[in-house]
Each structure stands twice: as C-alpha cells, then as structure tokens.
Design goal:
mainly alpha, Heme Oxygenase, Chain A, oxidoreductase, heme, metal ion binding
Length: 230
C-alpha cells in the first residue's frame, strides 16, 4: 500500500468531528501561538487589551448568532442551533461593566474583524460553512476558553462573573457532556466527502481570521503603549 493510500485510509476511518480536529490542528496551534494570545493565557495581558478583545468578540458573536437564528430551521445549519451557547447577552453585560453604560459608542470593529464577520454572514448561503465557524468559536470557548476564564478572573480581580461572563456557560449542565453531544451532532450530518473537506478548509480559514485578529490586536496594544509613553 502506498503512503498516499495509507493516509487516505486513515482519513476515511475518522468521523467528521475527528477529521475537523485532526485536519485543523496546525491552524489551531498557530492561532494560539501569537504574542497576544500567549499574554492572555499567561495573565500578563493589560486590562485594556482584554477589553479590546471583548469588543471584537461582540462583533464576531453578533454575526454568528444572527446567522444562527436565520438558519435555525435548516437541516444542516440548524443542527447546531443551541441558544444556550449564545454569547451576545453576556458580552453586552461584560462590556457595560468594563466600559460603562455608553460602551456601544466606544467600540468599533477592527479591519480583520470586519472581514471575519463578513465571511460569517456570507455562510448564510452555505450552511455547512456556518458549521465551520460555529464549531471553531464555541468548541474553543468550551475548551481552552475555560482556562482563560480562570486566568482573567485572577489577573483582573473579577468577582461574581462581572467582566468575564463571556466564558461562563451556566445554561449547560455539563460542559464535557455537551461537547460530546455536539460532536455526535456533527458526525450525524449528511455531508459527503467533498463537503466535509470544504468544511475542514473553512475551519482553517476561521483560525486564520483569528490569527490575524490576534496580530492586529497586538499591534494596537503596542501602539497604545507607545502613545502612553508620549
């Protein structure tokens, strides 16, 4: 058996959710390797950097949840319609706490965020592509996001959920159980080989947007620090 045939056989033996994870591992790792991401996870990110990230999350999840509502009854896009995951209400409360009652007037999407949200909204015409973005964001929040929750709570002295509600999924009884069910839903989707491959590629695209956003946030943070120095 040739190397190519062996690789294909291993790929064919994977479930869809396993293909998504295995096929995008390097993209996932690259997104987490940026200085901004590392500072967030280590608890060394300045508070205003955390606020800037929360603001961009607001625009991203607003787009995701708009499309989720539109596709709620679609046989593919609606398969991951879980309102209990929705983050916009939590982000609104976080931003009100972090920025004050006029927070909507103080935040704007960065260029990468605008491109990212445009791509998400475009997937209303390709529900399987929406699955890619939904999977990338929410499964990340339920996994590595829970580590970040503990870090930011300690780093910024947050209490009672104020300022980090984004990371709190109190409508889910068990995060591990929910993730297992979510993967089972993905595996039950009626997607042929070509469509699964397209979705894997779209997950890579989602990670690329996240990598570019981390880099842009890092540049903004550096510019703000330079400005503070006069």
């Amino acid at each position: 058996m040739s190397t190519a045939q062996a690789t294909q056989e291993r790929s064919d033996s994977l479930t869809f959710s396993e293909r998504l994870k295995a096929g995008t591992r390097s993209s996932h790792d690259a997104a987490e390797a940026h200085d901004f991401s590392q500072a967030l996870v280590s608890g060394t990110l300045p508070r205003h950097g955390y606020v800037a990230l929360a603001a961009q999350h607001y625009f991203i999840y607003s787009a995701l949840e708009e499309v989720a509502e539109t596709l709620a009854d679609h046989p593919v896009g609606g398969a991951v319609y879980f309102p209990e995951l929705h983050r916009v209400p939590a982000l609104e409360r976080d931003l009100a706490f972090l920025c004050g009652p006029d927070w909507r007037d103080t935040i704007t999407p960065l260029p990468t965020t605008r491109a990212y949200t445009d791509r998400i909204r475009w997937t209303v015409h390709w529900p399987a592509g929406f699955i890619a973005h939904h999977y990338t964001r929410y499964l990340g929040d339920l996994s590595g996001g829970q580590v970040i929750k503990r870090v930011v709570q300690r780093a910024y002295g947050f209490t009672d959920g104020a300022g980090f509600e984004f990371y709190i999924f109190d409508r889910l009884d068990s995060l591990p159980r929910f993730k297992k069910n979510y993967r089972a839903v993905l595996d039950a989707l009626d997607l042929d080989e070509a469509e699964q491959t397209r979705v894997v590629d779209e997950v890579r695209q989602a990670y690329q947007f996240n990598s570019e956003l981390m880099a842009e946030l890092n540049r903004s943070l550096a510019l703000a620090s330079s400005s503070d120095l006069g």
